[in-house]
Predict the 3D structure of the following.
Amino acid sequence: DGGITQSPKYLFRKEGQNVTLSCEQNLNHDAMYWYRQDPGQGLRLIYYSQIVNDFQKGDIAEGYSVSREKKESFPLTVTSAQKNPTAFYLCASSTSAGTDTQYFGPGTRLTVL
Amino acid sequence: AQKITQTQPGMFVQEKEAVTLDCTYDTSDQSYGLFWYKQPSSGEMIFLIYQGSYDEQNATEGRYSLNFQKARKSANLVISASQLGDSAMYFCAMREAWGASGSARQLTFGSGTQLTVLP
């Protein structure tokens, strides 16, 4: 089955620790995205990547880092510099043609203790 | 200024009835795309329907249709014959500069509408 997987589903972190969220897709999509969602709000873009080995900051990139070494994978690291990291994180991917619809993974809920 | 506005934080509809979820947008681009997503309590964002700014007909996907009024900059989602499983958060989103060189293909989301279907 083609799709997007994110792991883990729930993640707990102590203050001051870095943590990496996984995102993998087997849809052969070129572009991948990371969004953050806070309670009762819409999604905000953290980082995106249109091709391998290239990525750009979104609206709220401070305190986050990414890499895109493989087409299928786009991990997100939440660093200790992120002041309020507790949130729901969603990964998405899309083709670079047609309607360019973004399809989402199931999300990771990060809680900082 | 907000690019996507969803003015209804919560909506209720009786099962089997139709419901309209409002979405207005703001852009100066001529080419853009409008999307609706459903987010059930599990959290996953499910793509429902797409409307391109140059599409002359309103988009339809099964029980979902998009009432696109370009001059008013509105893209309301209509769900016909509501089902209990339609209870979820619904988000309207816009992608500007579709296909333009250097386009980020970013989506801008509204704040969502919580739909509850009553038995």
In short: Residues 98-103 of chain B have pLDDT under 50 and may be disordered.
